[in-house]
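The freezer alarm interrupted the setup, so I double-checked each line after restarting. Inputs confirmed:
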Amino acid sequence: MTLLSDTRALGSNAAAAAAATGLAARVWEALRTVRDPELDSDVVSLDFVGSCSVSDGVAHVSLRLPTYFCAPNFAFLMVADAHDAVSAVDGVTRADVTLADHFASDAINAGVAARAGFVGSMAGTEVGEAVAELDDLRRTFTERALMAGTDLVVRPIMREGATPEQVAAMTLGDAPDSADLRRLRARRRELGIPADDGDPLVVDPSGATVGVDALPLHLRKARSYQVGVDANTSICRGQLAARYGV
Amino acid sequence: MYEKNGEKYFVVDSHMHYWDASPENWVQGAEQYAKGWIECFHAYQSLGPAETHQPLEEFQKVSEEQLMREVFDEGHVDVAIFQSTYLREWYKDGFNTSERNGELATKHPEKFRVNTRFDPRDGDAGMREFEANVERYQPMGAKLYTAEWNGDSRGFKLSDPECYRFLERAQELGIKNIHVHKGPTIWPLDKDAFDVSDVDHAATDFQGLNFIVEHVGLPRIEDFCFMATQEPNVYAGLSVVLGGLMHARPRFFAKVMGELLFWVGEDKMTFGSDYNIWEPKWQVEGLVDWDYPDSAEYEDYPRLDTNGKKKILGLNAAKLYDIPVPVECEIREGEGAQLVDEREVAQA
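Predicted 3D structure, all chains:
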């Protein structure tokens, strides 16, 4: 109980550091692998972890979202992913991951605990029926993350004076190492697109190389995706702050 | 009208409400949704300037006097367009119905336009209600809330055959403008909930209608932009963009404006305050004063000059709604870009 109130008082990032001992620390690290697909950011950085504690090998994680009506499909993905990530931590015997304060909390929590999938979780519930599983949704948003990430990596290179011809000929290994580049490589791999040093720097979401003629429009679109992510993140953070005072 | 530095801005608030979300209006058994909904709206208000924040109780249902003062006396608005949103599953008398809006509009006919709505899932009874509302309020527009709950359904698309039947009838009845909510607050469960391609289809098939995408498709602004740039009858409704970002996140606001100006253009962007989420006053004044931050990041975005601001704040919507504009607020001949471009809007 003390830990829980400390967690709230400190904010989850600070609390993560404070609780950084052994198993609890490993659970926090595992949660850092869970992303909000729309914002392409992890649930710890986004402050979506309301509380996290471990007792007798059981990990209790409560997730929270910016609004009561946040998209239930994304909410389900995050809770299910968190459940999987925490369950896989060495030393955790059981994961108890729940979503709080959401219109579909009950359906999602019961469904994730029963590993029922999204359609199965929603079936027969008051909040409505779902028509499909979420693999396509996840892929769609990973493709968008690839586009947005391309902007973050390539725009600085263009600003340094690289020409479209030069950029079109560059490989990933030619780009300066950065957190953005590492993230772009990770998204490409998730999509099954090669991401080693010798692979082309700029590809479209199908993995095809973007030629010099198509490059300007491709990069212009990539920038729009990145602006979209930024705008959504701004609004979500503002809503979360209003709701939980973080 | 708003005047600054000798320039006069005619202001049309093309997306606002007069809702009743007080607990007395909550449907028994659905209280958690009615409450969750209005609390969500209330959290949005927190993204505006602190001095405009209201206690939840006041926010749930503003008085007529307060609306008239905040929108017209203080808010610089010349003409306001009510967008009806029913949500009858959660609110007994509806959240923001044509009737409720119409009652207020009848008292001030020169200040308001009442847009009605339809829900294709209501079938023939819904069609009769829609026709009756059109006859009663003579609207030039309708608002579609595709994520609204209706019985077992958790959403519809503009491209559904039933919706096409309503769009055809709307066109026959003289409706010109379809405002589509594509933005935050509530999502259908369907995996395509964020998709704007249904607007793309409808806009192509209904050339006699304009489609104003409210909240510019957030969280898929870019998909909206790529679509709108190809469809001459698709417009960007700026509600939430101004209210949610201009004050709280000015640098991101500037980027979103830059994207919209680049892809959609100042002739197809319309101001909406989303009252009573946010008051129009600070939004109007803020947009008139607005410019990009002084940074290389924004250099290649199109600029927005005084004429562009006049269009966005009122002249574009005035054209869509056939609202007469005082001569002193019009863009003068030979000054910058012209209001009327070569493309014909649907009402012409």
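Quick read of the result. Strands of chain A lie at 35-36, 41-42, 49-55, 58-63, 94-99.
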